[in-house]
Structure formats: structure tokens, C-alpha cells
Amino acid sequence: MPEAPPKRRRPLWRILGILTAILLLAWGGSTLIVHFVAEARWAAMKADWQALMEETRKRGQSRPPLRGTPTEGNAWDDYIKALSEVRSLYDLESQAAPRYLKGIPGSNRALVERVLTRHSSMIDAVRRASCRCRVNLDLEWKEGALNLPSRFGSATIAPLAVCLSRFLAEAGKAGEATELLIDTCRFAADIDHVEDMAPAFEELRELLAAGRLSRDQMSNLDRELELLDREFPRRGDRAALELIALGAQFLRSGHSITVQLVGLHADPEDSLWRYGYSAHLMKAEAFDAIRRAVMTLRDADERPWTESRSLLKQLTAELTASRNPIVQTAPEEVLGSDLLHRVHRSQLRLLRVAARHKATGELLDLDDPFGAKLLTRRTGDSLTVWSVGPDGEDQGGIGSFLYDREERDILIDVHR
Length: 416
Known about the structure:
416 residues, alpha/beta, 3 domains, four-stranded mixed beta sheet, two-stranded parallel sheet, 17 helices, 8 strands
């Protein structure tokens, strides 16, 4: 039989060419898939971001004035003017009021008075805003930037207003002083800097303890404190606003990933390979994860303190463990404890109980942000009201009005 001809072997270069073509097709196909998935996720992120911004715009569109006839207009227009004027102050001027209120050696009352005289329009703006019928934040996405009014300056304006109220009280104008303090609290709440309520609350406590207010003035104070309590800022709303700002940063930076986005301890290039080197996909995943966490926090704002604290701890652990480096930065950039919100709301409610008691003798039954109900004790004509504080343990009314992190009660003493 004739022998079969030997099989012809394909040249090695042809085999390599076929393999290369297959790899290129696979790479091209996977690139297309990543692109389509990334752009779909990016479009969904933009829609969620826009919806969140619209929701924030609508929040607080109308509200009752603290007193008198409501004035047309948006309180934020007044706040923007006041905050803009803060930038014209020198450092020494901006620190004058906080130093004076804290009694720091070398603090200068005369300097505080000069600042109040030269920049009286800042305090006038806060007073006008308290009677505005609207307080919606003007959020506008325009030409690649989010028009978000700066919060810088509230820590300067609030102490200045408190100093002025003290000067008014010393001049025998306790009623006017009280109204200015309430206006300042509403300003701090609208700006969402609850920590700037603390000096005003302490000054109100001093006025109540000194007995400088008439029965009618205390009744007015009682009503205005109730309004402040109803519109007290929520930690979840502040987190949502931070998320809007983060989303705007995503949109502005587009396809780039910077160290500012992924954190100082992460290399942007090392992080992108998980997402097919698509910055859109990394950002969209991060926004969705943080958005779900923020929505959970918003739902938890009215939960008991122990549940809220536990939930925050759980969310922080989950986000920190994420493989997405942007998500890992969320616990410090977006999420935050509602501890200060609850501390200052406790102080507000203590003031409410004290004002109502001095005005009518009635004892308000109010919830304790750190426990079940605010606790009370009568001794003769004296009344002690307290919150159990962040540790959740009742110390029997041992503590102070100020939060000192020593696990004591937050309390107020009044005489009728």
C-alpha cells in the first residue's frame, strides 16, 4: 500500500496569529461589555443624584415665622449675604466673640462691640430670615458645578449674635435678647450646624435662671422653642446634602479618578482594574452604596439612641470593608454620628420644659433623645429636669447642662 502523505503542520506564526485574534476579540468584547454596563450605571447614578437634589430643594419650602407676620422670600437669600460678609472680617475679628463667650484671658469686649457695629448687617440678616416664609436651599447644577451656598461663617455669626443678646439683656432688654437668641438657633438649624446652637442655648438657660423674663415673655419663649423642636435638623438630611456634593464632584471629574476621590492612601490606577479601568463604573458603584447607607441613616434618625448608634457602627464597618476605595472614605466624608444632634436637641427640650414650667407651672412630658422620657424632680419651688445622656444610664440628675463626655446626665435647674 502506498504510504499516506505526512500531515502538514501549520506554521507557528499562523497559530500565534489566530490566538492573538481570539484574544483581541475577547478583549474587545469585554471592553464593549464594560463600557455598556458602566454607561448604564452612570446614567442611573445621574438620575438618582438628580432626584435626591430635587427632594432636597423641596425640603422646607414653607414654614411659620417665629413671631409676627410672615415675610415673603427665602431665608437662604439673607443667609448668603451674611455668610459672604464674614469673609471680610480679619481673623482677630472673627475670633473675638467666641473668645469672649469662653472667657479666654485677653478676650476683648470692646473688639466684639466694634465688630457688631461695623457688621451689624450680618445680625440683621439673621433676624430677617427668622420671619421668612421659606427656607429652601437653592441647589443648581450649572456648567459643571454645583451652586451650593457655603456654610463657612456660621461659627462666627452665631457667637456674635449671642454676644449682642447678652449686651441687650444687660441693658434691661431681656425680651429682645431672648428673641435674638431664638433667631440665632433657627439660623444654626437652617445652616445645619447644630453645634452653633450651644452658646445660644446656654445663654437662654442663664436668662431663665436669672428670672429676667416676664410671664408673657416666657410664654412666647415656650412657643418659639416648640417651633425650633419641630423643625430641628436631622442627621440624615445633612448626610444627604454631603452625598449631593459628592455626586457633583463625580460628575465634574468625569472619567478621571483622583487621590481626592479614592483617599490619600490608595493609588487610583491600582483601584481601577477591578472596574475594567472604567472610572464611571467605580463612581457609580460608590454612589449607589453610599446612597443606600444615607437612606438607611435617614430612616434611623427617630430610632432610639442605642439602635441608631448600633446601625451607624454596622454601616461604617460595611463601607470600610468595601473593595471600592471611594466607598471606604464614606464613613468620615459622608456618614457621621448623630450624637451632637441628640445632645443639642436634649438641651432644647430641657429649655422647653423649663420655660413652660416657669410660665404656667405645667410639666411637659417630652421624649428624651437618649432614652425614653425626660426625667424630673421637684424640691420646693425648684425643678430639675434631665436627660440620661449618651451613656443611656440615669445618674439621678447628676450632671450639667453642657455635654462634657463624662457620662453624666444633661440637666437644667429652674426656680418658679
